[in-house]
Automatic annotation (TrEMBL):
PANTHER family: GLUTAMYL-TRNA(GLN) AMIDOTRANSFERASE SUBUNIT A, MITOCHONDRIAL, TRANSAMIDASE. This is Amidase. Keywords: Hydrolase. Transmembrane segments: none annotated.
């Protein structure tokens, strides 16, 4: 792509989903397949062609299952013709490179030769049981540590809205794949905002459900319980469909919350809610100035909520020193994952430093961090005695430029990361649900997001409110007009 073409790709235009062309959304594709309007073979081939066309620019995928996906699509078409119906039968989707897919390696952004996995992760098994076809695994930064998706193992994944900016991380490949129209939906993982941050920076709905809603098996929990799995989609209806298809527990899971009826929730009126608007991030000992475009965008979301009849007022949760509980759990998770890497010498020096920190904090400090969670829930949860939902920015800044954090040492990377993304990670410590909603754009066309946060049992309310906001803001009608989308725009 030339420089002039790259500039043109930064423009956007309205494009209602499914208008005048093949179905683009997850729910649309599932319905079209069930009605016989399109074949799975055609949808999968279109996905594969778009992924190939976008590889030199967006670079969203670590690996493709092209032959397997086409064979599975042919089988899905036979089953559909025979009258079989499943929620996602024949629909192509993608999963992040930290989820096991039978016959494929799980490298989680790392360099080296990884063995093929013998079995699907539970969440992948459930997707396939619902009929979905996994076309490939998407790029992720090394062990999910950073809000960008770049690395020597796979190169730079770029933002379809602005190819010189990151889509975020660590689920940046999944976000870029959906934003560019390569797949209708994808799963990511969120350990410190890693679904919500890329969703904010690519104009998507990104859901982090309550801990355990989507199984992390073959791990009983992921990153000491702070990491969960969630969908990245253009619409909340698509997110709900993917959630319902993929959710459920494995007998070995440590966290097994009640089932979530996500599709029912998005069809339900949320009622009149009390919304707390907070600009205050938790204490991190790092300066976290809020970009004026982010403040403007989140303020506009708050005004929309007020216009819908909700009560909105400024109020801050009492975060305390929750960061003291996050760091031992996060670095212990890095240490555990780093031990699985075939050649640790290939790991980024920042990863090796985090793993060393995880070893140092892996004893009493980690036990104290885990034991503190009930107190933290009570302290922060006191806000929900007065309010139903907390609204905050998802990030403090617009998307970073590609390479902005490359070459920094661990300390400076952490400082830059905290400055850009100080709002998301406390909800990972708590294990509570959160949703990124698209909140508009900077003057230069970079996507921005707002975060809807709830208590432990707040998933359904957040999804209902997101659906109401989507009806008002119509964010799904705006897409990146980029050649990297392979014609999707």
């Amino acid at each position: 792509m030339s420089i002039d073409e790259s500039r043109e790709s930064r423009e956007s235009r309205p494009a209602p989903p499914g208008a005048g062309g093949p179905p683009e959304g997850l729910a649309e594709q599932a319905a079209a397949l069930a009605d016989g309007q399109v074949t799975s073979a055609a949808l999968v081939r279109r996905c594969l062609d778009r992924i190939a066309a976008s590889a030199p620019t967006v670079n969203a995928f670590r690996l493709l299952r092209a032959d397997a996906a086409e064979a599975e699509a042919a089988d899905a078409d036979r089953r559909l013709a025979a009258g079989e119906r499943l929620p996602l039968l024949g629909v192509p989707v993608a999963v992040k490179d930290d989820m096991d897919v039978a016959g494929e390696p799980t490298a989680f952004g790392c360099a080296g030769e990884f063995p093929a996995k013998a079995a699907d992760a539970e969440v992948v098994r459930r997707l396939r049981a619902a009929g979905a076809i996994v076309v490939g695994k998407t790029n992720a930064c090394e062990l999910g540590q950073w809000p960008f998706t770049e690395g020597p193992a796979f190169g730079d994944t770029r933002n379809p809205w602005h190819l010189d900016h990151t889509p975020g991380g660590s689920s940046g490949g999944s976000a870029a794949a959906v934003a560019a129209g390569l797949v209708p939906a994808a799963l990511g993982t969120d350990g410190a905002g890693s679904v919500r941050i890329p969703a904010a920076w690519t104009h998507l709905v990104g859901v982090k459900p309550r801990r355990g809603t989507l199984s992390t098996w073959p791990d009983p929990e992921s990153f000491q319980g702070i990491t969960g799995i969630g969908p990245l989609t253009r619409t909340v209806e698509d997110a709900a469909l993917l959630l319902d298809a993929a959710s459920g527990s494995h007998p070995g899971d440590l966290h097994r919350p009640p089932p979530l009826a996500a599709r029912e929730a998005v069809r339900r009126d949320p009622g009149r809610l009390r919304v707390a608007l907070s600009w205050k991030p938790p204490f991190t000992a790092t300066a976290t100035p809020l970009h004026p475009d982010v403040r403007r965008a989140v303020t506009a979301v708050a005004r929309t909520l007020a216009g819908l009849g909700h009560s909105v007022e400024e109020a801050d949760p009492d975060y305390g020193l929750i960061g003291l509980a996050f760091v031992p759990r996060a670095t212990a998770g890095v240490r555990e994952w780093a031990a699985r890497v075939p050649d640790p010498a290939l790991l980024d020096r920042r990863t090796r430093g985090a793993a060393r920190m995880g070893r140092l904090l892996g004893g009493a400090a980690l036990r104290r961090a885990r034991a503190a969670e009930p107190r933290q829930r009570r302290r922060i949860g006191a806000l929900f005695g007065r309010y139903d939902v907390l609204l905050t920015p998802t990030t403090a800044t617009p998307p970073l430029r590609i390479g902005a954090l490359a070459g920094l040492d661990g300390r400076r990377t952490d400082q830059a990361m905290i400055a850009a993304c100080p709002y998301a990670w406390p909800w990972n410590v708590l294990g509570w649900p959160a949703v990124n909603v698209p909140a508009g754009f900077t003057a230069g066309g970079l996507p921005l997001g707002a975060q809807l946060l709830g208590p432990g049992d707040g998933d359904a309310r957040l999804l209902s409110l997101t659906a109401q906001l989507q009806d008002a803001l119509r964010w799904h009608e705006r897409r990146p007009a980029t050649e990297a989308a392979g014609g999707a725009a």
